[in-house]
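Changelog-linked ticket: fe (ii) ion example.
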Amino acid sequence: MKNTTYTNINTDEIKNWLKDNLNEERYIHTLGVSEAAEELAEIFNLNKEKAMLAGLLHDAAKCFSNEKLLEIIHTHIPDIKDCELVNYKTLHAPVSAYLAKTQFNIEDSEILDAIRWHTLGRVEMNAFEKIIFLADKIEARTRNAQFRKKCLDLLQEEKGLDKALFECFEATIKSLADRRLAICHITIDVYNELLTKI
Ligand SMILES: [Fe+2]
Ligand SMILES: [Fe+2]
């Protein structure tokens, strides 16, 4: 039996909404993430339709103002964690998950969690969360081709998904530090976790 928590979703409707609510570059990135997520789902034998949807919706709230993001968080996301509020760049993740649920009727917790944690990551991420996190960093349309190739090459190795993910966390932490932006402790925890695994 088909899981009705994510089927019957009209992707054209989602794309039209995204076109209206994202700038062009972010919309193109979003298409790239949905494609990369589908490719990674194929490689790791995960649900391709769910991966495509998570990719499509992961940045739905990215172009909302910080004021609007905070208003939605404080009004509708009671389980928000302090660490999700540390850096304004990550506010869109819980709100995008909220939109996926309320605007597009996605109830599947794996999709919603992958969207919510696509910026900070979290310890003991499942394979689905990992491929969405990775897809966001290596999609072919707007991300750096050299970094994409490096990660795809790592995927061929043993423990490849964790190795590729580690590259992403390392690059994210370096980039945040370079810009003197706050780094959530969860992100550091995932970095340390992956370091012991690879
Ligand atoms: Fe994002
Ligand atoms: Fe993204």
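Closing comment: Example verified and attached. Residues 58-59, 62, 92-93, 118-119 surround fe (ii) ion (ligand 1) (CB under 6 Å). The mean pLDDT is 95.
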